[in-house]
Amino acid sequence: MADHVQAIRDYWDTAERRDWDGFAATLSPDVVYDLPQTRERVIGRDRYLTFNREYPGDWHVAIRRVVTDDAGGVAWTDVRVGDEHVNAIHFFTFDDAGLITRVDDFWPEPYDPPPGREHLVERY
Amino acid sequence: MADHVQAIRDYWDTAERRDWDGFAATLSPDVVYDLPQTRERVIGRDRYLTFNREYPGDWHVAIRRVVTDDAGGVAWTDVRVGDEHVNAIHFFTFDDAGLITRVDDFWPEPYDPPPGREHLVERY
Q1: Where are the alpha helices (DSSP H) in B25-84?
Q2: What is the CB neighbour count within 10 angstroms for residue B65?
Q3: pLDDT in tens, A11-28
Q4: Which domains does chain B have, with CATH numbers?
Q5: Are B109 and A110 an interchain contact pair (Cβ–Cβ within 8 Å)?
Q6: Which residue in B34, B25, B85 sits closest to B57, CA to CA?
Q7: Cβ neighbours of A40 in B, within 8 Å
């Protein structure tokens, strides 16, 4: 099994440095990128590279947690744009060569807690 | 290392069956449940059990993917309430006995895609 932890770290490290050749080297030519929240899909390494190169904003990524197994892995990251921080969660699937064949990407946004559970929770 | 895949499946299987004794058996007495989107935290097994028992709605859970390593794991689930489906992502941390000590829980909701990337994406 390839080193999926290192591959995920390479993915984020090259993205953070805008090293698009290095970023492309983590991807299968047939990679599929899926955003279930917007029901968008980007198919193929070339389009996915362009998607990331053109992504607006001066974003910066810090890895909070990586979990991997034989099939792939997941990264929970803190993405900062200016003073704003958002969580992002990327599920990765790899081929036998250790290249990324699929990314399922989630961007959970803040929301107001529903009423009725104040007796059980603390806010922070 | 304990079987974290099985522990996560037990967590969801017992929750789905409302087997609260079985659910409690997956948890450390000191478990911390954290919802970063609402900045809510539930501390301790008793409160966390009550939080789940009292959770409103006829919800049903289907596991989509589980990834684990020595420290813990993550589950991506499809949660259905009536005809509505939402994704949920739970990061788990375990103690040496295989009990859950921490859950970081995300509920990414649908949103409209931003303009400017229509040339790169397909919708589904």
Answers
A1: 45-53
A2: 15
A3: 999 999 999 999 999 999
A4: 2-106 (3.10.450.50)
A5: no
A6: B85
A7: 113, 117, 121-124
